[in-house]
Amino acid sequence: MVLTGQVSRDVVRGINAHGPLAAAVSGEDAGLFTGRRRGAVVDGVEVDLGLVGDVVAVDPTAVLAQLDAGRIPVVSSIAPDESDPAVSLNVNADAAAAALAVALGAEKLVILTDVAGLYRDWPDRGSLVSDIRSDELRALLPSLESGMIPKMAACLEAVDGGVPKAAIIDGRIPHSMLLEIFTTNGIGTEVVPA
User: Under CATH, which number does the domain 92-194 receive?
Assistant: First the structure.
């Protein structure tokens, strides 16, 4: 698979250019993710989406082992199908990250994207939402642009699952992770429980 064979290796190589810190972890490794095929109904007819699924279970043991060894786990978002573990499913990376954050008991989930965050009235740049409660986001979700829905749904999943904060930030901004984590106001949009 491209995620495990190429993308993951490229990310690990980029991190390791600064020291041997990163290790690739596939969603299939040690049962990290378990997936279920996703179906869709179009005009009342069930449509086969192929090898696309949703994360239904997480065992964070493989990630915890990497963290305990002082490594940065680079996780690819694939999962064995729960009904046929020999079949690999592509799962949404944002949803997989949210499920992993919940399983790890993370303090915060940060999702990188190519926009500044959530806009109440896209593309009005003045409508950027800096922080939002989960109940407000849940009400706003159906009206969002389609590309932002999976990211904001992942933030909701994380916060609903016990992660105290989740954020969407623009990964194109230099040092965006540092700005989000080590400044008072952060950048992008932060989601907190209601």
Answer: 3.40.1160.10
